[in-house]
Amino acid sequence: MSTAMQPETAARPDEPRNPPVAESRSLSTWLERHRSGLLGFAGIVVVLVIWQVSTGTGLADPSFSSNPLRIAKAEADLFRTGEIYPYLKASGLEMLWGLLIIIIAGIPIGLIRGRSRVLHDLTEPWVNILYSTPYVIVIPILIFWSGIGNTSRIVVIVWAGILPLVINVTTGVRNLDRDYIRVATVFCTPRLTFLRSVALPATLPYILAGVRLAIGRALVGAIVAELFLGNNGLGYYVQNSTTNSNIDGAMAGVVIIAVVALLLNWGVRLIERRFTHWAEAQ
């Protein structure tokens, strides 16, 4: 008895195999990769929805708390009329000069301080005192010394931001791998060459973490300085809007400050992922 063979159906070369499975895996991979960002975005949306519903149902008075829709309208008006641009420019220039001074001075100070035990012990009490002392308390002294101009505001920004960077870089240098130090010692590496070619690359994760902390504290310092010392800038705009009972405009200014902070931190995180991925693998 012969058994009939069932012919196998050949798959067409242009016919995709299991497309739903491939798409599902691709989607799950994308969701897993962006899980943190999506959850953060969802958290922001939930808070905004609760805020809007609270003002819409009368649980909160929008005259005192505003709401997301009114803030969005105020944001659009600020950028449409150009009213916010001078304040953004003033704060941006102060932050630019302050961060340049912080980075240019803070990294070398941290490297040298981390390599010299004598210098570290001599400066440790002063670093702790200056880091623990609120910089707001010296603002009256700065006004007495240099008035309420840009110089005083930049001094406050530098004071607020440079110490976290110095402390982080110092910690990174003091925790260097002993093998690096032994190899440099064997080859009689000059001190400056060691700092530039060994200590600086090895402490890059500490440096970028310090830069992130410095940016946050410097932005706070800039806003505080504008509240007390300025007649321009985002901090002054928020204070002036609150004084004039323009709560929507004040909250719009706060949102702009928050967005600037997020963008700055996002930029530093991108640099960390690009240049310090080797540290995560260790």
UniProtKB/TrEMBL annotation:
Residues 88-268 form the ABC transmembrane type-1 domain. InterPro entries: MetI-like, MetI-like_sf. One of its GO terms (cellular component) is plasma membrane. The chain crosses the membrane at residues 36-54, 95-114, 126-148, 154-173, 249-268. It is a multi-pass membrane protein. Residues 1-24 are annotated as: Disordered. The keyword Membrane applies. Keywords: Cell membrane, Membrane, Transmembrane, Transmembrane helix, Transport. The keyword Hydrolase does not apply. It comes from the Bacteria. One of its GO terms (biological process) is transmembrane transport. It holds the Pfam family BPD_transp_1. It is found in: Cell membrane. Belongs to the binding-protein-dependent transport system permease family. This is NitT/TauT family transport system permease protein. It comes from Actinoallomurus bryophytorum.
